[in-house]
Specification:
alpha/beta, four-stranded parallel beta sheet, 19 helices, 8 strands
């Protein structure tokens, strides 16, 4: 990595804390990812992205800002990247996947707050997330109550916090409400960027994001093969980079990876032996660098073949209808696409468990591991009915509740190994 000290300093980062973070993450990345056997060559691009995730990519954001393009940071897949691209903006995900500075976060938040929220605050208070500091607008979305109330505390800490409200029920009223929230977000983007969203710019944004999602959907479909042509860890990494990389470059790189994986499938080449136990992971999103659970699973004689998660299938499953028409027509299409997302904040939410069953079937998964972050009430509450429904459908299911720390790694591995043994005997 080049020397980005001046840029990090100008962003106001705590250089000592940031350097310590990069050192820890670099070491973990090498141990977890680079130690894997028989990785696809196409993963070298994603290794490079991760090696420069706080360097070259931040430099690109700063260059975009110098060209009077706005940078919009967000924490959730309900924030439409299509609208951001329509004002020639740059959309980036924000840091929320590591147990960093939780002691600082717990000075302003209750201790029994989910790790994702505490992580977002830990990165901000510790001044180690360059994406957050580079953002002209930070978008918070009212998915769960924890996020909704925490944004009141975050607001004075960031340059411009924009809170997007979301419906909680899939009704006609809920759809109308979501459309009006997206209309309000459009107006915000136009004010901050000084650019008007046109049918042409919005259609272009839709097509760029559709291409990105289609590439990841292609990757997801390839993972149905046995032997698995790519590890669950590497597939998760691709889904995580989805939120940080330039969208056009990302799409090209994923499609190149898929070309290679399709050749692997034709030649029977895999990252694990044929008939290795196949597992689907369902539940909470896994933001960078939350790799604990996949590492434990894939070091227990199993391979992950899919993620029913916002950082996974739930984030890319639906495309937005791209059509000629007015901005209003295209806004209808965007609303329809995002209203389809079956996040656990919706009640009732039957489509989610139905799709977990569908994924397990099409990916030939032998069992499902349902992952919940501690204190994430929507997914924890939903995990019981999901387990019951899957077991009723003869899909063995293991519910796990954890956080970002390594303290429970041994206990988790014991439970995972017992579950995989159950699948092997099935």
């Amino acid at each position: 990595m080049a020397d980005y000290t001046k840029m990090w300093s100008e962003l106001g980062l705590d250089l000592e804390g940031h350097n310590a973070l990069l050192s820890i993450l670099g070491s973990a990345y090498g141990d977890i990812f680079l130690s894997q056997k028989n990785r696809p060559e196409g993963m070298k691009y994603f290794d490079f992205v991760m090696s420069e995730v706080h360097g070259l990519r931040i430099q690109e954001l700063m260059e975009a800002k110098a060209q009077r393009r706005i940078v919009v940071g967000s924490y959730c897949v309900f924030v439409p990247e299509e609208l951001i691209l329509a004002v020639d903006g740059v959309s980036v995900g924000l840091c929320a996947g590591a147990e960093f500075n939780f002691e600082g976060a717990e000075e302003v938040l209750p201790r029994n707050t989910c790790a994702l929220i505490k992580s977002a605050f830990g990165f901000k208070l510790g001044k180690v997330c360059p994406y957050l500091e580079a953002s002209d607008v930070v978008v918070g979305e009212n998915t769960c109550d924890g996020k909704k109330k925490s944004y009141e505390i975050l607001a004075p800490m960031v340059k411009d916090l924009y809170v997007m409200d979301l419906p909680q029920m899939k009704t006609d009223m809920g759809r109308t409400f979501l459309k009006e929230e997206y209309r309000r977000f459009m107006a915000k983007l136009e004010r901050v960027s000084g650019k008007k969203i046109t049918p042409e710019s919005l259609k272009m944004g839709i097509e760029i994001v559709n291409a990105k999602r289609a590439a990841v959907k292609r990757l997801a479909a390839i993972r149905a093969a046995d032997p698995a042509p790519i590890s669950g860890l590497d597939a998760l990494l691709v889904n995580q980079v989805f939120f940080y990389d330039d969208p056009v470059r990302f799409t090209h790189s994923v499609n190149q990876l898929c070309d290679e994986l399709e050749e692997r499938v034709k030649n029977g080449i895999g990252v694990s032996a044929p008939e290795t136990t196949r597992v689907l992971v369902s539940g909470c999103p896994m933001a960078v660098p939350n790799w604990k659970l996949p590492m434990l699973i894939e070091s227990s004689n199993a391979v992950i073949v899919g993620e029913e998660s916002c950082v996974g299938e739930r984030g890319v499953r639906w495309l937005t209808e791209s059509k000629d028409g007015t901005v209003e027509d295209l806004l209808d299409a965007i609303t329809a696409r995002y209203f389809s997302i079956d996040c656990a904040v919706f009640t009732p939410n039957p489509s989610r468990v139905e799709y977990v069953k569908e994924m397990a079937k099409k990916l030939n998964a032998q069992g499902v591991i349902h992952y919940s972050l501690q204190f994430c009430q929507p997914y924890i509450v939903e995990s019981g009915p999901v387990e019951k429904e899957l077991e009723h459908a003869s899909i063995p299911t293991l519910r796990l509740e954890t956080d970002y720390s390594q303290e429970d790694a041994g206990q988790l591995k014991t439970r995972i190994e017992a579950f995989i043994e159950r699948l092997e005997k099935k």
